[in-house]
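This entry is set out below.
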Amino acid sequence: MPRTKTERNKHIFLFLRIMVVAAGVAWAAVWLSKGQRWGNLAAIFRRMNLAVFGLVLGIFVIGQLMVGLRWWLLLRTQSIFIDLLAAIRLHFLGLFYNNFMPSAVGGDLLRAWYVTKHTDRRFHAVLSVFVDRAIGLLGSMVIAIVFYLLLLRGEGLQVAVGDGGGLPKFFAEYKRIILWIGVALAAVFCGLLLHKRGRLLLGKICSLLLTYSKKACEKFKDAVILYCSNLLAVLKVFGLTIFLQLLTITGFWILGMNMGVTAGIKYYCVFFPLGWAFGAIPVSIGGAVMVEGLTAYLFIHFAGVGDELALALALCQRIVWMAASLPGAVIHLVGAHLPKGFFIDYNKPVN
């Protein structure tokens, strides 16, 4: 019975994430329907140089290979010895699941599941996936904060206020829609409070949030204790993270210049990592809509980029992500993700 309830909660959570993506896509479609936005967006994509796009895609794939290397290094730090190519294959399989498969099983869980089948150090293996994701998010935030403090502090606010844009303009333009959404949410909340089942549902949601938060805090505490004994290795992995993320950002800056975006690379070094961190919040499928919406918004209101051009840049990032994920589908189809490609700890072959 508990298992059934758990599965039901996962399905509800998945449905809500799909609804977030659907609502975001519908909002974008309505926004593009005004004026000549559809035509302008199509014109931007038509004039994009495919060779430059291919170069950026190659840079991103190299970055993902380095992410696989990063996870492999973290595993070795805890004496979990699997083949480097196996770790990279699992990373690309997880990437495919994150970007293409609207399921309750994310890429991180998939990686954790396969690793734990081939090592006695199951806890350490699962924790390595959590630490790998945490280091990636930390690297994104460090890049965004450092570049903002060094190059953009105060500048973004001046742009937003000076052109009458930013949040005030957004709320002024869509105040009726926002008001009706707020009224609808308030009505739903009050309706749930008035009914016994509704109160039970709200209680379950709060309980789930508390449970997940507690588990996350426990994992974080365990990770700090475990990896503090290998601080030098963690610092090396963090340095690799900064390098590969800056490499990826540089690639998208090259693509943006080819598309006609005049904003300097300093904006990319702040806006793209913020989008990545925002997309890690599990409220949509693979961060879809969340990443694109925030990235486009920041470039429009804080870098002075045209609406359609900013959206095109954000969409190109998603297209690159999805194209780079396709090797994961091949890996899944040919069975390269199966246990036969792994080795147990201490280099002992699997029986």
